[in-house]
Amino acid sequence: MSGRLLAFTSVFTMAGFGGALGVGGCSSDPATSAAIDGGEDAKDTPVDGGKDSEAKACGPQGGPITMEALESEYGWKAPAARQSACTPAEIAKIQERLERGASSLLDFVKETSETCKACVVTPKESSSWGPIVVLNERGTDGFFNFGACYGSFDMSVCGKATQYLELCINTACKGCVEGTAGREQCIPDALASQCEAVAAQRKADCMNSSIEHRCQNVLEGIKRLCGAAATTAAEPGQARKARSAAGSQAIPKPSARDDASSSRSLPTH
Fold first, then answer.
1. I want to staple 186 with a disulfide (CB 3.0 to 4.6 A). Which of 24, 44, 173, 251 is the partner?
2. Total number of domains in the chain
3. Is 13 within a domain?
4. Assign residue 208 a region: left if phi > 0, alpha if psi is -120 to 50, beta otherwise?
């Protein structure tokens, strides 16, 4: 986890609740529905602790996961309007904790203001979701809402599809250990099998590739939605209008990605 700041399609060494994350590596909801868990075939795979069973457990198993199944299991809520809720010092503190790890999702915003906490971490029952969503008051169960950053631009459907693809991959690869070759290989395998339909939907919903480099990890989402400059930065739509007024229709290409903070990315086209 250190150095990558929980990049899109990375697992925060958590498991359970399908693609949701339970802090500490323990299952947070073993009663995940068959539709999300890949069907009954996936449940029949023996796991006896041996190398052969470990290899079988790591990788997509069972039938396809659909957008409808993810909608029923999780749902998705667009983020609230951007706000200057966290100071630069608080953002730096959150970054440090993300790199170091925590025993609770609430620990990531420890020693920050109540305003900052409320922007970054939201309960699942809230009318809008922030970059981190918790499923209980202790923050020991929840997930990183990668879709919040995408949804904060002018394409909420992209935010939803992005989050569902993250949840789908985490579900398909939940038997893999983060940081291993098996986990890395599981991602393209999942995109070509269990998560193929969800990946296709994200491709259709996320046509503006210029925002990809601005939403590479959960920290970028926190900066985007809750950072001190959140209410002053120009939106992509505003920038396009300004260029159009000047007689230019060109949309700038995204800059080179920082491999240190985003070790892998998903195709959008």
1. 173
2. 1
3. no
4. beta
